[in-house]
Prior knowledge:
By secondary structure, the protein is mainly α.
Amino acid sequence: MLRRMVILISLAAFAATLIGGVLALRFKDKLHLILGFSAGAVIGVAFFDLLPEAIDLGSRFYSIATITTITACGFLVYLVLDRVVFLHGHADGDEHDHAPNTGLTENKHIRRGILGAGSLSIHSFLDGVAIGLAFQVSAAIGAIVAIAVLVHDFSDGINTVNLILKNKGEGRFAFKWLIVDAVAPVLGAASTLLFSLPEKSLSIVLAGFAGFFLYIGASDLIPESHHAHPKFLTTAMTLLGAAVLFTAIHLANL
């Protein structure tokens, strides 16, 4: 049953990434409200689900201060990965967009787009791992984490396409990278079917993922949703996203 759920949700992550990318190809300037909602949902999962569950599971092994420190470390580790390894930036524009369109400059743009899309694909693989490990805790936790990952993968699909297009890539090339990014969470979730973690280790993993999700929401999704768009509506959607996830988590724990 667990194996079937992980596979089904990983396929849903594939679909969410694909849909996000296809919509980005068609309706580039109409997605900021969905990104705002996604930001609230991802941050809500970190605060209302992952961190409390990490404390609950790890209370027999670690102090609350230790677990929250691990969450902070997860946030900072993801920051380093994002800035140094993933080289992630806003897909809607950069300082190089107005550079002279020479062949050398165009090749540099394309390489930058490939690096960004590849990094997002690695990121999506880790999202799949998060789904699989969450289901090792419980079906309810797995379902909540899956919701957050699905909305996040939707935005990853958008960003993958935009990174290629903004860096002089063609639509067909962007779609190929979109397929790579969509397959990545399926592989990540499937990998967790090959191993399991004890509660002591799961609490650490959940605390670390809480830090990851806080960074993703605060540093990636919120700026993307507000970039060149009205702030009031996107802020309202972010608050709505957090409220919906709070309600869903509360109902799942009844």
